[in-house]
Amino acid sequence: MQPKRHSYVRLFSGEFTILQEARNDLIEPPASQEALMQRYSLLIDHYDKLLRTALKLSRISDIQGQSLTNQNHRLKQQSETDYLTGLYNVRKLGECIPAWMSKGLPFVLLLLDIDYFKNINDTYGHLSGDEVLKSVANILTEQTGPDDFVCRSGGEEFSILLNNIGLLQAESVAQNIREKVAESRFWLLAGESVGITVSIGAVEYAPGMSSEDLLVCADDALYLSKELGRNKVSLFPPLSDKRHL
């Protein structure tokens, strides 16, 4: 008597059948030593198939778990990233500022706005405006360090957190950015190029300031740059307490 062979059309189909047949094979006492060995061989065959099934289940579970982890990671990235420039978005900025405050290290917030950006959209179209935004994003990434934070905070406005730096050093970084943008040509979809400038406001974090304080002060400095004729960098003095606002 040869052990039965089982053919499975789909993965995991037939596990119950294997168990049932193993049970049936062992219900009646063996008539001879040969029959006992045959049933023993059949039981080993059943056990081997169940073991391989368990291993397949384990591998599929690992794959599904890894796939879910990757999917969650992608969703998190998408929720934190600006779709156009690939920079972080304003939501991530809102998380990053309190986190940096808790570190106890000095840092500076820069707010940057492209001057007269509406004219580019009105003259050349929004797709060309998008190309300018992406090019500016590349400049900001090139002009900042790996420990800094760069995001597109909305429209033609960008925000930068400069890590472990004072206001005067940050002013130098901001001036380098302003000069790099001013000396660059920005290519549009139609093959034309335009020149642009940016206005920048800077504020250094001081203990006691809230995230809102920091953003308001940087925005005030940015407004001052625009009032002075644009293509400027303006500083807001650090505050030791938000009551000084």
Explain the overall architecture.
This protein has about 240 residues and is α+β, with helices and mostly antiparallel strands. It is about 55% helix and about 15% strand. The chain contains 7 helices and 7 strands, in the order αααβααββαβββαβ. The chain has helices spanning about 15-25, 35-80, 90-105, 115-125, 125-145, 165-185, 210-225; strands at about 105-115, 150-155, 155-165, 185, 195, 200-205, 235. The protein has a 5-stranded mixed beta sheet with strand order 2-3-1-6-7, with helices on both faces. It has a two-stranded antiparallel ribbon with strand order 4-5. α4 (about 115-125) runs antiparallel to α5 (about 125-145). The termini are far apart.
Within CATH, the superfamily of the largest domain carries the name Reverse transcriptase/Diguanylate cyclase domain
Give the terminus-to-terminus CA distance. 94 Å
The overall pLDDT, averaged over residues, is 83
Question: What about the largest sheet?
Answer: 5 strands, mixed
State the domain count: 2
Which architecture of the largest domain per CATH? Answer: 2-Layer Sandwich
What is the H-and-E element order? Answer: HHHEHHEEHEEEHE
Strand order of the largest sheet: 2-3-1-6-7
Query: Total strand count, please?
Result: 7
Strand content: 5-15%
